[in-house]
Amino acid sequence: MPERFSKPVKFAGYQFESIQGGEDPAAISRLAHETAAALVARVRKDPDPAIVERLVRFTDENGIDAIAELWSRATPHSLPGTLWRIYLVRSMIRADAESVALFYQRGSVVGTIDPVVAGAPDPAGPAEILELADQILRGVFVGDLATALDRAAAFCRVAASGCTSLADDLEGTEPDRSTELTRRALRLSQTAADLTASSKLEREGGLD
Predict the structure, then answer these.
(1) Cis? peptide before 123, omega within 30° of 0
(2) What is the pTM of this model?
(3) Domain spans in the chain, listed from the N-terminal domain onward
């Protein structure tokens, strides 16, 4: 019988006790890379559906800060930095699925291939966008990692396009809201670029 473990990603806390002051950049970077690689390899070796679901929903129970301590400072085009961004996108969706669904629907009419790559149904309401986020994260652990990253990047580009479109509509009547949406569009666009770069590295065997 394959070896089981009950808390597959609870890395916060004791792993940092050996790092003096908790601020040694080299040690923190090494820990981030080691834990990300071990986690993905462990789940791919034994893709138990219950374990995968616990990983998908880990931040729902423990909060995004539980993995931020591990992976948020990793370089964007690394495995830990990539995992951080995937979890961050999912957390953004769960925090306000209705708004994100609106952004996605607005952006999906632009006419690019991104909605097809992302894989959300049409129309995609809050429930469908939430399920898409879970599908993408499952794909990171048990599917083709590069494909999962391409889907996440496409989703971010569509949502960014929707934010930009809404920002343009509100520029004259709600300038503060317009500015907020523009900033969100920029963040989503940068995340999409980072995920696309990581996908390319994964296909070349260089994402670690």
Answers:
(1) yes
(2) 0.86
(3) 14-203
